[in-house]
Amino acid sequence: MKGYGKEAIVKIGVNYYQWSYVWGILDAVDCLAIDDGGDRSPQEYVDAYADYIAEKYNGNFGEICAVELQPLEKTRVDYAGGCSRSGNYAVDYMRVEIAGIELYAEIPVPDDDTPEKESKRYDELVDEIDHEAFKKGVPSELLYYWYD
Predict the structure, then answer these.
(1) For labeling, which of 10, 68, 69, 116 is most exposed (least CB within 10 Å)?
(2) 28 CB contacts (<8 Å, ≥6 apart)?
(3) What is the pTM of this model?
(4) Are 20 and 68 in contact (CB under 8 A)?
(5) Is 112 helix (H, G, I), strand (E, B) or coil?
(6) Is the pLDDT confidence value at 132 over 60?
C-alpha cells in the first residue's frame, strides 16, 4: 500500500475527531476537494472521502486506505510533581495524551519554594502546553487544566 499511517485532529462542524488515515495517496489539494466546510455529518464526510478516492484512483476504497474517525472529548491536562525526564531533580509538570499526541512540559522546583512560586510555575506550564498544542495541531478547545 502506498503511503504510511498518520493521525490528525479534524474539526467537522463544531466537533473534533481523531482521523486515522494513510497519507501519501492523497495530497492536501485532494483533501480540500472534499472539504465542504463541515456541513456534513462525520460519516457523510468519511463516505465522501471514500467515494472521492475510489473515483480518482479507479479502485475499491477498502483496498486503497483505511479511514477511521473517532470523536474526541475534552481531556484534562494532568498537573503533578515528580522527577525530571532529563535529569535527577524535582519538577512540576503537565502532561496529556490526546489522539495519540503527547503534550508535556516541566519546570524545576526551587529549594525555596512558596505557594506564589508554584502558582507562577502552573501558569508557565499552561502557557507551554498551549504552545506545544498549537505546534502539534491540537486545538486548545480540547484541553482543560487541573484548576479549570
Answers:
(1) 116
(2) none
(3) 0.65
(4) yes
(5) coil
(6) yes
pLDDT tens figures, 13-48: 677 777 665 544 444 445 545 555 556 565 666 666
Nine cell digits for residue 77: 491536562
The whole-angstrom separation of Cα 110 and Cα 115 is 12
Chain mean position to CA 90: 28
Question: Contact 7/22 with Cβ under 8 angstroms?
Answer: no
- CA atoms in the 13 A half-sphere facing the CB of 2: 6
Strands (E), the chain: 4-12, 15-23, 68-71, 75-83, 90-98, 101-108, 143-145
* Closest CA relative to residue 83, chosen from 108, 49, 104: 108
Place of cell 474517525: 69
Distance CA 47, CA 135 (A): 29
pLDDT tens, 42-56? 566 666 666 666 676
